[in-house]
Amino acid sequence: MDKNDKVKKDSRKQNSDESKDTKRDEVELLKTKAEELEDKYKRALADYQNLEKRAAEERREWILKANKDLLLHILPVLDTLILAEKHIKTQNQELALSLKQFLDILKGEGVTRIDAVGKSFDPHFMECVETIEGEEGKVVEELRSGYMFYDKVLRPVLVKVGKTKAAS
Fold first, then answer.
1. Is the domain of 2 the same as that of 69?
2. With helix as H, strand as E and coil as C, how does the chain read?
3. Residues of the chain with pLDDT under 70
């Protein structure tokens, strides 16, 4: 082998090594680029899923607000039916059945009655309109029923709260 052949061989080897290094660099660059794109894709997907959840929650809130407004308009009618049932001297089975159906429908929609009589006064669920002689801090009489709509107060109970009489 002469000197020129050896130089050519060394030159080819050096070019081959440089070519391998260049290819390795390109592969690394492509891997980095692929990881960046994958990261961007995952972030975009997560943002989209969060947007979908937020939109669904907003729709749910709008529906609940609309239902709440409707229920607040209906409750006075229920109050009237309950008063009518109390004041009718004879047992009216039709009225009692209608009231039961009305209350069952409300319960199915997430509305429950707040029990107050005999319980300690709680300003989160009750509104005191008068204090009368009775056990201190206990609800003595319910003037208007109150209702919960799922976990929120739809309408507070109007009550009379007991207060011990001061000694003379």
1. yes
2. CCHHHHHHHHHHHHHHHHHHHHHHHHHHHHHHHHHHHHHHHHHHHHHHHHHHHHHHHHHHHHHHHHHHHHHHHHHHHHHHHHHHHHHCCCCCHHHHHHHHHHHHHHHHCCEEEECCCCCECCCCCEEEEEEEECCCCEEEEEEECEEEECCEEEECEEEEEEECCCCC
3. 1-18, 89-90, 166-168
Q: Residue 136: CB partners within 8 Å, gap ≥ 6?
A: 162, 163, 164
The range of the structural domain enclosing residue 51 comes to 1-77
